[in-house]
Amino acid sequence: MILNLERFLATQQPTWTELERLLSKLEAEPDWRMSLEQLRQFHLLYERTAADLAKISTFSSEPQTRAYLENLVGRAYGELHETRERRRRVFPLKWFFQTLPQTFRRHVRAFWLSLAITLGGCAFGAFALVLDPQAKLALMPYSHLLQDPAQRVAEEERATADRLAGQKASFSAFLMTHNIQVSVFTLALGMTWGVGSAIMLFYNGVMLGAVAADYIAAGQTKFLLGWLLPHGVVEIPAVLIAGQAGLVLAQALIGWGQRTRLRGRLRAISPDLVTLIGGVGVLLVWAGFIEAFLSQYHEPIIPYTVKIAFGLVELVVLILFLTRSGAAPRTGRGQEDAPAPKDAAGTAKGCARL
Amino acid sequence: MRATVKTSSLQIRTPEGIVFSQWLAGPVTRWLAWLIDLACIGALLTVVGQVAGILGVLSPSLAAAFYVLGYFIVSIGYGITCEWRWRGQTVGKKLFRLRVVDAEGLRLQFDQIVTRNLLRFVDELPAFYFIGGLACWFNSNCQRLGDLAANTVVVRSPRILQPDLEQLLAAKFNSLRQYPHLAGRLRQRVTPAEAALAAQALLRRDQFDPVPRVELFSALAGHFRQKTPFPPEATDGITDEQYVRNVVDVLYRAGTEKAIRVAAG
Question: What global pTM score does this model have?
Answer without folding.
Answer: 0.79
